Amino acid sequence: MHLIQMDSVQRWMEDLKLMTDCECMCILQSKPISIEKDEENELILSSQYSTCDNLQLLLKRAWIISTEFTRIAQKLEKNRWQRVHSMTVRVNCHVRSMINEHSMFTRNSSEEMHQFEKLLIDKCSEFTAFTERCIQTEDEQVLKSMKSCINATLTTVAQYFAQLIELILTNEAQNLLRQIELSDNVYITESALSSLFSLTQEGAHLCRIIAKEGGVAVLFKICRQDCFRCLYPQMLRTLASICCVEEGMHQLEKVDGILCLADILTDSSHSEATRAEAAAVVAQITSPHLTFTQHLSSFLENMEEIVTALVKLCQEASSGEVFLLASAALANITFFDTVACEMLLQLNATKILLAACSDKQIVDTPYSRDQVVTILANMSVLDQCASEIIQGNGVQLLLEMLFEKSSSGNSAEVAACERVQQKSAVTLARLSRDPEVADAAVKLSCIPRLIKLCRSPTERNNSDSVLVACLAALRRLAVMSPDGLEESDFQQLVKPRLVDSFLLCTNMEESFV
């Protein structure tokens, strides 16, 4: 996925390394420089690159070949026979180069692998021969009849190619997991873990492969051995990546992973880094964006221990990153189960979170404030929460969050700022059913800020969700303090139906006078 997100010029430069004179490269790579010293050459080559580097090269080559398949299909549709043939030759060379490169860096390939490689090479040769015949004839009827054969061959080549890549990646995942499981050497295990983590960063498909090959069980086996304590953070980071897919979550449940995470979080002898990474795994498996968390029954059994440990981690966090991971886990848990909000109240979490927000070294980004205000918004459905907010000067914090702005202009940060504004308005609306909170909000001039956010699209970054939340909060405060609004604001933002006020504000042209 990172290839797709790369700058286009940079991606072209990367691809150029693999695409220049690929026909010549293919011929050269097919011939050993020295027959007698072939093994020595293989050793030199393999020592220059790590498993991670080799897989990166393979994935780049695979991406190029997949792109070429798409382009061939497009040219074939337009009957551009000359282009189809030249691109087919190029794909043929890329496939051979990829297989040769993989063979140089892989020892003891399976018989199944060799069979797939042979099948693919044979089919590529057949494909090239087909397209060559097409450029040697001008008979439209012949070309029309051959077109369906070429389409079928292209589909078969693409399928064989996808199966070979799947087999290679599965084989690499198996090798790495075997190294991790069998090694009692910290350095070898660390190297294999690093390569495995790099694999997980290549997308959900690779995470599924690792999960299916028993990756979650292998990682938890490491996590239960004290001799590998120094590798726990790295192991947990890898585990969090694998658990972004359903197969990883199922494996986690099967090996009692939740219980292991709870043990790590509650054991103060573990380093803060280890507990923070365990919190990151909890945040991942309880993400409200995932649709496959319902089966985590064991999480509910250990939830009280986990929530208590996470609140303590927030309170004792020595850095913004640790606080972010712990608070993100808590925020997700408040969506995951409503009982968590009651637990947080009993643990004085409101006071701890509000205190953390006053420390700019700990809550130092919109992302951290997003987690805090998410927790407050979910807790605000409880009547007891209002007094906690008042005591912790929480209304002032919510007002400050209504002014949240991105300092970098980065799209992710801008989106986080929008969420902070929206959720702070939602929290105000919910809490303002309590007269004491509503009175504090009015005295702190929350109403003028809410009006500004409704009337000025740039203040809310043209966000409709922020607008709806602000209109709801404004209407709740207007009931408690009708004198706080001017007549025009009342007539346009409070009196009409919510949808009418929304349409009025979204069509409003901002005055720059």
From TrEMBL:
Protein name: INSC protein
Pfam family, one: INSC_LBD
Protein inscuteable homologue C-terminal domain residues: 61-513
Lineage: Eukaryota, Metazoa, Chordata, Craniata, Vertebrata
Organism of derivation: Nothocercus nigrocapillus
Recorded GO MF terms: cytoskeletal anchor activity
Gene Ontology, cellular component aspect: apical cortex
GO biological process assignments: apical protein localization; asymmetric cell division; establishment of mitotic spindle orientation; regulation of asymmetric cell division
GN (gene name): Insc
InterPro entries, per the entry: ARM-like, ARM-type_fold, Armadillo, Insc_C, INSC_LBD, INSC_LBD_sf, Inscuteable
